[in-house]
């Protein structure tokens, strides 16, 4: 039995937006980016048991025992007050699951899904669990038909990707900005490692799709279109998914930024398609 555990913020048994087909989506807690545009900002940090959320919970679903914050799911009303007051951008509702416990959940829905996607937060910040989970799936005769995908920001080192390589089928990576300085402004981190991950995954036939985020008035893809197109062409036949920024759920300054519309997305989509790049447009706009 594999006792490797992960801190999990959410498990969605059936998702049609986290990769191809119907998939179980596993969201791990913790991220090494601080994206201004994150619409799941409570998945960024990890609870340090400060207790601020306990004082503000209107339903008394949180308490402190032996110096730890405990969440009582049975009386929680999912009002999300704790998420909004947390200074760590974390959630007291995150739970620890072992590989075996997650496998049990996968087995329950396996006949109805095409695969699993591990997201976050940032899935690769809990790499040992990720490797152990995917290894176990591929070794299980009843589950090995499922595709194992990672939704990642690309900050994982090449050594880390090499550890995953034998056990996963692909990764969906975000490139939030082309220019390094602009990327730092949006995410708090530089992007050379992310570009390297994208190239490396494409070279090893593990880049399922490249994702670009259109943020009105805060997007630099068109300014660097020639370089971006050359970069994408070098990846081979990889689809580019364009996501439209929306302010729903966003904290901080980006909460006041304008959400993207089809008119914001079309110039980039058309420019890429003109260069024979496969583009996947947003399914909806909020």
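^ Assign residues to that structure.
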């Amino acid at each position: 039995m594999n006792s490797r555990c992960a801190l999990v913020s959410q498990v969605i048994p059936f998702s049609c937006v986290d990769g191809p087909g119907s998939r179980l989506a596993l969201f791990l807690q913790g991220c090494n980016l601080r994206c201004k545009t994150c619409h799941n900002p409570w998945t960024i940090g990890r609870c340090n048991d400060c207790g601020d959320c306990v004082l503000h919970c209107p339903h008394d679903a949180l308490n402190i025992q032996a110096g730890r914050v405990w969440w009582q799911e049975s009386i929680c009303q999912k009002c999300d007050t704790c998420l909004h007051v947390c200074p760590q951008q974390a959630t007291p509702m995150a739970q620890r699951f072992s590989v075996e416990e997650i496998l049990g959940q996968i087995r329950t829905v396996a006949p109805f899904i095409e695969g699993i996607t591990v997201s976050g937060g940032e899935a690769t910040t809990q790499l040992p669990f990720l490797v152990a989970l995917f290894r176990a799936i591929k070794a299980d005769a009843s589950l090995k038909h499922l595709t194992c995908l990672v939704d990642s920001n690309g900050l994982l080192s090449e050594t880390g990707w090499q550890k995953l390589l034998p056990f996963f089928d692909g990764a969906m990576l975000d490139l939030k900005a082309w220019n390094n300085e602009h990327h730092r402004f949006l995410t708090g981190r530089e992007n050379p490692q992310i570009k390297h991950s994208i190239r490396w995954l494409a070279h090893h036939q593990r880049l399922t799709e490249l994702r670009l985020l259109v943020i009105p008035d805060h997007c630099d893809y068109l300014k660097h279109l020639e370089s971006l197109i050359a970069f994408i062409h070098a990846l081979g036949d990889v689809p580019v998914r364009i996501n439209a920024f929306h302010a729903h759920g966003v904290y901080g300054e980006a909460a006041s930024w304008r959400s993207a519309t089809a008119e914001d997305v079309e110039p980039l989509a058309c420019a890429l398609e003109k260069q024979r790049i496969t583009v996947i447009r947003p399914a909806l706009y909020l």
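The radius of gyration is 19 Å.
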